[in-house]
Design brief:
4 domains, 3 strands, TPR-like_helical_dom_sf, Sel1_AlgK, TPR repeat
């Protein structure tokens, strides 16, 4: 380095504002005895002694291409330089505003000002925009600056797209991507990631994603899949299997269908943790018209989705098991899945659970008040009446059920009644809890019977003695049995125990649950 350059740096370090400004400019552009080192140049020009000077802003804005200014967070300097009359800064600012707002009009005042000052590229831009149709103005601007040294339009468009993504503007993101893909010589990883983000966003927001061609989206998804992007694999897999993603049809995401390739992509996505991909695999393999139809594989995929916590899968699996159940064990398994789905707010699952509970008459608050009266003389009977109201139990079931043995996470299992000889009346029955309060009351009932098991057995006696005590209490308090116990014939109860018979009675909500 020459002696005068060393002296300049010495003065700059000692606080000389003019020397600091001069050294900063030289570092930005390189040459004249200084190597080009942008970070050092920005450091010199960011010092409080020179930071607010208009010439400093002009030096930064004019020395660096637009993409570097944006990466280095120098938008403020760009605005300041444009405001004090730098044609080059005005040109860059006009291009940036046009790209970020996806319309030439947003940056046109700055471009016109730069063109009036004689800036060659600004003049070319304005001429191209004037010759183009109004709906092609942005494309004309982009085409006219493709070879500009001051603006790398692909990098700037990518930066604008990232800003749109971070600020929450999907339309703006899509427009920026359209511009970038228009002039990019090849699809880059950065562009691919942004396209995938836009598609996921459009899927979530039910957006049409207009502006991006299917072949561009497909190429972006494929490039992301190669790098192990599970979201891209799921999107492309669904599209190639002919499945919609939100409101996005397969034709919006891919140029051709291919079931086998789609299934392979969905398997990759599911294995990587996209649990909804298991449901897509189920839909593909459960369709008997599909070339990859396989009922056994379909059931496997549905179980995987259900175990992963997908409420739709839990509901469908529970409905399928319940429809074919011939034992109380299968009924319990089915209700457990339906209960899990209902806990996630699945309305179809809630309706199916409701179809397994016998209806009761009377006002709930009046019934609870009557139970409190009963509790004063017979707490065991009061607990049984509470369970009868919560779970729609018949009189026989309510007086014989064991809350300790029958309690389940999803509700109550009314076990085999040892006091009844008729098989239809004594067979066990699984009854789901339709409300959190029902589960809480069941937990309290189980705790009460567990703690007082010895005394309770001696006090309650067998079913005949319980029935006599219940009848006397009801007569004394003038209570109606219809208010607390459900009424059902042995044939009706059998329909709750056998899946095919239940499916016939609940065919409408069952069809909705399996189709939804």
């Amino acid at each position: 380095m020459r002696r005068q350059d060393i002296q300049l740096l010495t003065l700059a370090r000692q606080g000389d504002a003019a020397a600091r400004s001069k050294a900063g400019r030289r570092y930005l552009v390189g040459g004249d005895g200084f190597p080009r080192h942008v970070a050092t140049g920005i450091e010199y020009l960011s010092h409080p002694s020179v930071r607010e000077l208009p010439e400093t802003a002009c030096a930064i804005a004019e020395s660096l291409p637009l993409q570097d200014l944006l990466e280095l967070k120098q938008e403020e300097a760009l605005h300041k330089a444009a405001a004090v009359g730098s044609p080059l800064a005005q040109f860059k600012l006009g291009v940036w505003m046009a790209l970020t707002r996806s319309r030439v009009a947003a940056g046109q005042p700055w471009l016109e000002t730069a063109a009036a000052a004689g800036h060659v590229e600004a003049c070319q831009v304005m001429a191209a925009v004037e010759d183009a149709r109004s709906d092609r103005a942005l494309e004309a601007l982009v085409e006219s600056i493709k070879s500009s040294a001051a603006v790398d339009v692909v990098q700037v468009a990518v930066i604008a797209a990232r800003q749109a993504r971070d600020e929450g503007g999907l339309d703006q993101l899509v427009d920026c991507l359209r511009v970038a893909l228009m002039v990019a010589p090849r699809l880059t990883h950065a562009l691919s990631d942004l396209v995938v983000a836009a598609v996921l966003w459009a899927e979530r927001e039910k957006h049409s994603l207009r502006g991006l061609a299917p072949d561009q989206i497909e190429a972006s998804l494929e490039l992301a899949v190669v790098r192990g992007d599970r979201d891209a694999a799921c999107l492309l897999g669904r599209a190639r299997c002919g499945l919609d993603s939100g409101t996005l049809t397969p034709a919006r995401l891919t140029t051709s269908l291919n079931l086998r390739k789609g299934v392979a992509l969905l398997l990759r996505a599911a294995d990587a943790g996209r649990d909804d991909a298991w449901l897509a695999l189920y839909a593909t393999h459960a369709d008997h018209r599909s070339s990859v139809s396989n009922p056994q594989m379909a059931r496997f995929f549905l179980e995987k989705a259900a175990m992963a916590g997908q409420s739709e899968a839990q509901r469908k699996l529970g409905a399928l098991i319940l429809r074919a159940s011939n034992s109380v064990m299968e009924s319990e398994q089915a209700i457990a899945w339906l209960h899990a789905a209902a806990n996630q707010g699945d309305a179809h699952a809630q309706r199916l659970l409701g179809s397994l509970v016998l209806p009761l008459q009377g006002n709930e608050s009046v019934a609870r008040a009557a139970i409190e009266q009963v509790r004063q003389g017979d707490p065991w009977l009061a607990v049984r009446l509470t369970l009868a109201r919560d779970f729609g139990l018949t009189k026989l079931e309510a007086l014989s059920v064991d809350p300790v043995e029958g309690r389940r996470p999803w509700g109550l299992l009314v076990g085999q009644n040892p006091f009844i000889a008729q098989a239809r009346l004594s067979a066990p029955r699984a009854v789901p809890a339709l409300t959190p309060e029902a589960l809480q009351n069941l937990a309290r009932a189980a705790a009460f019977f567990e703690q007082s098991r010895g005394d309770g057995n001696a006090f309650e006696g067998d079913l005949r003695r319980r029935s006599v005590r219940q009848r006397r209490v009801f007569e004394r308090l003038n209570l109606s049995e219809d208010f607390f116990f459900a009424t059902a014939s042995s044939r009706s109860l059998e329909a709750f125990r056998l899946g095919p018979k239940w499916a016939f009675r609940a065919r409408q909500p069952l069809a909705l649950a399996l189709a939804g």
